[in-house]
Amino acid sequence: MTRWRDWAQLVRVPNTLTACADTLAGFSIAVGAWHVSHAIPLVIASCASICMYWAGMALNDVNDIEEDKQNSRKGPIVEGRITLQSAWWAGWGLLIAGVVLSVVAAGMFVDASRQTRLVWPCMTAILLAASIVIYDSPIKKSVLGPWCMGACRSFNLLLGFTIGLVAIPDIAERIGNLQSTLFILPIAHGLFVVGITLAARKESSWKQSSWWLASSWLVSFIAIVGLAMSTLFAPQDLKFRLDPRTGFPILIALMSVPWLIRAIRSVRDGSVRTLVPAIKQAILTILFLDAAVALQFAGNVAGLIVCALAIPTFALGRWFRVT
After folding, report:
1. Using H for helix, E for strand and C for coil, what is the string for 60-90?
2. Cα-Cα-Cα-Cα dihedral of 59, 65, 67, 73, to 10°?
3. What is the pLDDT of residues 126-138, one digit of tens each?
4. Is the pLDDT of residue 240 over 90?
């Protein structure tokens, strides 16, 4: 009988909460301060994001089965603890559940004047699901693979944003105020993940190419700079919790330092021994960056709630494989 630990390993359960952190950050950008009435839709939206992430992990291992067997990699499917067919059905089932839950979360904000807005979270959820399916295909091995992964994270952030748009009364004013911020944040968020994916492509190699790693981490560093500067050009009357010129860039920098130290170390050493911790720290950094965004747009409570997701993430990382 398949154990729950096998399924938890298949879906990379330690990384789960970094996915719903994206959605919570996107929701914060759209609505600003959270209210008690947002609680249930936020939980449902988080579950939708988790389903999407788990689907991606399951379908990823289904797609990689032959390569994993050739390289003698460990995993529930390779070792026969989960059948290939079961993983495939689970992946597609979770993907459909994620789309449905996204619409349900947005639907909780619907009244007569907002019914047409449901099309946005619906389309975003479908685009996210499509990006996951495209990545978990032969395209993953091509030059487009890392960019598809980055698109998954961008759409995940936008999923929370579009769900939030259904909740606010004056959508035109909110989008008008966000302007360049709305353009920069999803792109920078996805670009950070592109860099991680490029670096991880040679994770299983004994010796890494220094220039490849340096170039990969440079992509993520550019994304960090973009995130730090994302609120700088927003209208001054838009309410932020930290000064866009000083406080927010400093917070983003502080959140990124542990990853940057490990990234530099991995380039200098060029081995799997230093690369794997750098990748793990980069994945965890996604959560902290989401917490910084939530704090900037929605306040201390939202930022602390997202940041607190690091506690179970750390705990789960002690028992399950992250990459």
Report:
1. HHHHCHHHHHHCCCCCCCCCCCCCHHHHHHH
2. 100
3. 999 999 999 998 8
4. no
- The pLDDT tens digits of the residues spanning 243-283 come to 999 999 999 999 999 999 999 999 998 788 889 899 999 99
CA distance 32 to 238: 10
Question: Which residues share a beta bridge with 207?
Answer: 271
Give the closest residue to 136 by CA, choosing from 71, 72, 197.
Answer: 197
Q: What is the pLDDT of residues 277-318, one digit of tens each?
A: 999 999 999 999 999 999 999 999 999 999 999 999 988 877
Are residues 275 and 318 in contact, defined by beta-carbon separation less than 8 angstroms? Answer: no
Q: What is the C-alpha to C-alpha distance for residues 161 and 297, in angstroms, rounded to an integer?
A: 12
CA torsion sign for 102, 164, 295, 43 is negative
User: ∠ CA(265), CA(57), CA(128), 5° rounding?
Assistant: 100
Which whole-number Å values give the CA distances from 227 to 182, 288, 293, in the listed order? 11, 12, 9
Q: Cα separation of 184 and 178, whole Å?
A: 10
User: What one-letter code names the amino acid at 318?
Assistant: R
DSSP 207: B
- pLDDT the model gives residue 168: 84
Q: Which amino acid is at 244?
A: P
- Chosen CATH of 4-317 out of 1.10.357.140, 3.50.4.10, 3.30.420.40, 2.40.30.170: 1.10.357.140
Question: Among residues 164, 152, 269, 251, which one has the least CA distance to residue 206?
Answer: 269
* Domain ranges (residues) in the chain: 4-317
Give the pLDDT confidence score for residue 317 in this predicted structure: 78
Structure pTM?
Answer: 0.91
